[in-house]
Amino acid sequence: MAFLYDFLRTTGFATMAPGNVVMILIGIIFIGLAIAKHYEPLLLLPIGFGIIVGNITYIDSMSLGVYDEGSVLYYIYFGVQQGIFPPLIFLGIGAMTDFSTMLSNPKLVLLGAAAQVGIFLTLLGALYLGFTPEEAGAIGIIGGADGPTAIFLSAKLAPHLLGAIAIAAYSYMALVPVIQPPIMRLLTTRKERLIRMKQPRVISRRERICFPIAAFLIATLIAPGSLALLGMLFFGNLLKESGVTERLAESARHSLIDIVTILLGFSVGASTQAKTFLTDQSLGIFALGAASFAIATAGGVLFAKFMNLFLKEKINPLVGAAGVSAVPDSARVVQMVGQQEDPQNYLLMHAMAPNVAGVVGSAIAAGILWSVMLK
User: Fold this and answer.
1) Which domain holds residue 166?
2) Model confidence, pTM
C-alpha cells in the first residue's frame, strides 16, 4: 500500500493544477486551428503539442521540463534561450526569398519601414503600463509579426518573458488572415482597392547577387545588433542567387529550416508552463501584441495612401498591409482582399516587396532596440 501511495503521489493527476488544464486546452485549440483552419500549421501544430507536453506535471525531484537543467527538453530549449534557432530560421528564409520585386520598385521598401511604427508605439504603451525598458523593447517587436525576431530579442532583453512573447508573436502571425482584412477594408475605399499596378521590371542576375552583400553592409552598419539575423538572411539569399551553391541553398530552405522550426516550435510551446505563463504580465503582453500588430498593419496602409498624394503611378494601399514581416501570409492576404474587389487584379508580387522589406526592417528595429535598451 505504501508503494501504491507513493506511485499515485507521483502521477500527473495528483500534481496537476487547474492552470495546467487550461494550458492543455489551449494547446489542443492550437492544434485544432492548425489542422481544421490551416492557420500556420507548421508553427501552430508544434507549438500546440509543445504546450501540452510542457503542462504535464511531475514531482520536483524529477528533471523533465525545459527549465530543469540536465533534462532533454532543457537542451532543446537552449537553442531558444541563447538565440541560436532564430538566425538559422533566417538562413532558410533568405534561401527561399526573392528580392526581385523589391529591387524593381524600391519605393515599396518605405511601406515595409512604415509598418514598423507598430513596434515603437507598442514600446511606448508597454512603458506606460509599467514594464521596464528592456521588457518594453522585447514586447514591442511583436508588432513586426516576425516570430524568430521576437524570440531573438526577448532572449537578449527579457528572457523571463520569452514564452509569452513567442506565443503572442506566432499566434498573431497565424491569425494574419483574420486580423488584417477588416483593418485594410476600414482604411481604404473601393476605388483605392481597385488600383492596378504595372508589372515589375526584370532584375538582372548581377543585381540579385550584389544586393545581399550591399544590403547587409548598409543595414548592419546602421544597426550592428541585427548582425546575426541579417547576416544569416542575406547569406542564405546569396547562396540562392549565386547559382553555384544550389545544394546548400536547397538544404537551407528545406531540411534545415524544417528541422529548426520543429525544435523551436515544440520547445517554445513546452516553455509555457502554467505557473510561469498564466500571469497578468502574459495577458498584458497579448493585449499589447494585438495592438502592435493592428497598428503595424494600419501604418503600412496609411503610408501607402500618403505616398499616393505625391506619386503619378499610384500604389494600391492594400499593399501597405504586407509591410509586416509575416512572409508570405501578409502578401497572400493582400492578394485575397484585392481579388475580392477585382478578380483580375494580381497584387501578390507587388505585396512581396514590402513583405520582405518588413523582414529586414523588423530585424533592424530589433538591433536598434537591443543596442539602446541593453544596459
Assistant:
1) 83-373
2) 0.91
